[in-house]
């Protein structure tokens, strides 16, 4: 594949759209011919990021949108999940394994940990009242192996 291929997807911040996001990202990434393991890692990471945006990003029902920006360049796929919600009050605390700000929803508190472990690069930027951006990058080794 030559050059950079990009996609942007915006959808309502509704829990039923988490599966839609997984399928859309899987379809986009499929052009790199990932292994099932690589594809499962990507699907799990995007699922965690989108679920966090839906559950933790918004307090009210107004203008609740989640955007996924992605690009493929060479053997890497970059995905950024964006919400324009309330932001994360204490990012260091939120990144701690088993921490959840919504224990009443029986959340595991492992979302950021899972994303960080499944991806090659992971970054969270959040601003109170300004939303959150979760950026992830994964190299697809199976595609690289084809060229060696």
From TrEMBL:
Cite the EC number: 2.7.11.1
The processes (GO biological process) annotated in the record are: asexual sporulation; negative regulation of sporulation resulting in formation of a cellular spore; sporulation resulting in formation of a cellular spore
The Gene Ontology terms for molecular function here are: ATP binding; protein serine kinase activity; protein serine/threonine kinase activity; sigma factor antagonist activity
Give the superkingdom in one word.
Answer: Bacteria
Q: Which reaction does it catalyse?
A: L-seryl-[protein] + ATP = O-phospho-L-seryl-[protein] + ADP + H(+); L-threonyl-[protein] + ATP = O-phospho-L-threonyl-[protein] + ADP + H(+)
Keyword annotations for this protein? ATP-binding, Kinase, Nucleotide-binding, Serine/threonine-protein kinase, Sporulation, Transferase
What's its top-level EC category? transferase
Q: Which Pfam families match?
A: HATPase_c_2
UniProt xrefs under Gene3D superfamilies: Histidine kinase-like ATPase, C-terminal domain (3.30.565.10)
Give all residue intervals belonging to the Histidine kinase/HSP90-like ATPase domain.
37-142
SMART domains according to UniProt: HATPase_c
- Biological role: Binds to sigma F and blocks its ability to form an RNA polymerase holoenzyme (E-sigma F). Phosphorylates SpoIIAA on a serine residue. This phosphorylation may enable SpoIIAA to act as an anti-anti-sigma factor that counteracts SpoIIAB and thus releases sigma F from inhibition.
Q: Which NCBIfam families match?
A: spIIAB (TIGR01925)
What family, per the record? Belongs to the anti-sigma-factor family.
UniProt protein name: Anti-sigma F factor
* Organism of this sequence: Paenibacillus algorifonticola
The organism's lineage is:
Bacteria, Bacillati, Bacillota, Bacilli, Bacillales
Whichever gene encodes this chain, its name is spoIIAB
